[in-house]
Records
---
Amino acid sequence: MPGAPNRTGHFATGTDTTQADGLPQMPPGISAPAAAKWEQLLEQLPRPALRSIDCHQLRILAELLALVDAQTTAAAANPTDPKLSRTLLQTAQHVHRLSSCFGLTPADRARLNIPEDEGPDELQMFLAAYG
């Protein structure tokens, strides 16, 4: 019953409490276009939210994003083909569903309570360079 605590349909969200064990490694056998998408995703996703086990879902997301690129090119070359348009839309919907798991929109990041990646301390970097 949606909205009822401890019942199907009610999912509590919060901060990921699993041990941070490093970034996911690119799996072998990933296609070249998906490998490029993989690299883009790792640059854009908040590092504190990533774990090594995420490699499986990230691979699927990267392959789907590469497929969207290919389907977009094919659909642009033949805009009157309804089958191409339909498969592009279906693939884009899969990307949207899976991307929400990684917080690729502001609403997803808020819902998932992904911690901010503070990055390097600029003051410490300055002091180290001139200290």
Note: The chain has a mean pLDDT of 82.
---
Amino acid sequence: MSIKQSILNDIRAEKLCSTPDKHHIQRCQKILDNLESLTYEQFIDTGHIMPKGHIIDRYPHRKLKEDTKTVCRYVGGFCIEFVGKDDFFWSYHKDKDFKHVEMTLYNHVKNTIDER
């Protein structure tokens, strides 16, 4: 799935929630308008930290690690999970340095955009 499609799906999912985050929807739409020039700062500014239960309620099909406590969700529905005592996890990358995991996620998004 393309990044553009991921963002569109994220917007649709947010709109279907009982209490949609209109600010998140607007940020997603703004990013879509200028997707090729997405900067690291713009990407990380979309991050929202929320408890695991909130993510599960809002996105019931999302699979999270069993020991996830909290999640930081970004544009496109990408998430970094706060697992165990002090580890952070995204897809295949687990680290104690949140910024490093965040940069890995951003690089994945940016590389996927650039591959088109």
Note: The beta strands are 48-51, 68-73, 79-83, 87-90, 93-95.
---
Amino acid sequence: MINEYRNRIGTNIDGIIRDMLTELIHISDEEGVDFQDRVDAAVAVTAEEDKEDDRREFEVEFYELHASKVRLRAKNKADAILMAVCGAHGDVVDNSLEYIEIAHEYGRSVNASELALSEDEQKEIQDTLSLEPDGKIEGLRSVEEV
């Protein structure tokens, strides 16, 4: 419903939620329902669900290969390459940044101290990804709880 409304009206999620709440208030008034009581009940249920949810939030960072273009003035192709490689800053070509793939040759070993994974976590990853005990998780740079 929300995505359909978003596409039809062309508003952001804040506007959609406001409009939906406005409609719910009208319906509640028409039906004789205490809207604020229902909001309070929904907040209480959400808090209870959050307590039962044992998941935590993490940020997982990957090494990725990207391609981008810069435009600079040079005498010839070799000069242009050398200027770019040696740090001459040209003008970034608009919309030239392109994702290529995960940087497979980079990554962290499943038992890397930087990851600080428990033995159970290491085993779960090894089993799921069919890795050796010191196997590399391709492209993985870090994981941090936030």
Note: The radius of gyration is 26 Å.
---
Amino acid sequence: MSNKVIYIFLIAFSILAFSNTVKAEELRNGYKYPGYIIQNNYDTIYGYIKYSDVVRSQNKCEFYKNENDKKPFKKYKPKELKGYLISDVLYKTINYSGGLMSKPLRFLKVNTEGELTIFTFWEEGSIPYNREREQTAVYFKWHDKKNVKPITNSKFAFSFAKKMSAYVADNKELSKKVRNKEKGYNLLHLYDIINEYNEWYAAKNN
């Protein structure tokens, strides 16, 4: 497979991954929004969260009990929460911070929720003034002991049918459709495949 074809594949993945996102960028810096935090013991506490920007939102959660409070009740780090909701934007904590190392925890914005969750990760650090901050689609299966690390689009750049069918192998019927390249089960239907997997998993575990 040529580099040009791989590039086209990755662009297609990016379009799929971000076409349905709730835009966290539409939240206004410095404003408080209603929401909640999910503590590590899974207790949910409702209140208000101040929005900073897409990068700071990955690294901290500034929580207020009341909208008019001048000071935050607490500024949480990813290791202190399972996640949080600000307005209608949900963040969950996983071991992904970009690059080759996945260990550092981050709050990642949830794009598609389910057993196989799709997250959005925003490039961290300083960037040149003349380009936009890059976004990465991150995929994670919560209870799969064979796939314990988050993955990105590069996982599927070569041999989509083979790799995607292996990724959803616990759903044997779906895996077979992808492996056999049946109509509607190729790269361009990635979201549909993931949604079908999540529906299957939810029904199985109700």
Note: The two ends are 42 Å apart (CA to CA).
